[in-house]
Write a structure and sequence with these properties.
The chain is of the alpha+beta class. It is built from 3 helices and 3 strands, in the order βαββαα. It has a single domain, classed as Rossmann fold (3-Layer(aba) Sandwich). Helices cover about 35% and strands about 20% of the residues. A 3-stranded mixed β-sheet has the order 1-2-3. The radius of gyration is 15 Å and the shape is globular. The N and C termini lie far apart (about 30 Å). The mean pLDDT is about 85.
Length: about 120
Amino acid sequence: MCVCVACHFAGDLVFTVDSSGSIGLLNFIQVTSFITKVAHALDLDDALLNRGDGMAGFLVGLTTFSTRVSIVFTLNTYSDKALLLKALDVRYMDGTTNTADAIKYERIVTGLLGY
């Protein structure tokens, strides 16, 4: 059982989730449920809101993969937790397991963003 507490630090967190047939729908649901629990505990980055108080939180991104890689949302997409949590409700894709392309793709994307 996962118990999450509030997280009051800053960071960039990109979830790369296997959505292939080798994982199966039930395991995919477990993984996305875990990610949702983690997201509930995070302070999001208020810099996206230009609040101006110097406080920073987390930026969250999500990518799924099976035969193909799919960006669900990038690090700078959500500063509103309710919208982030809604966006975590993603479809199971099935297909083959293409972990290599998922890792290559994340390295390229985060490199282009300067992370």
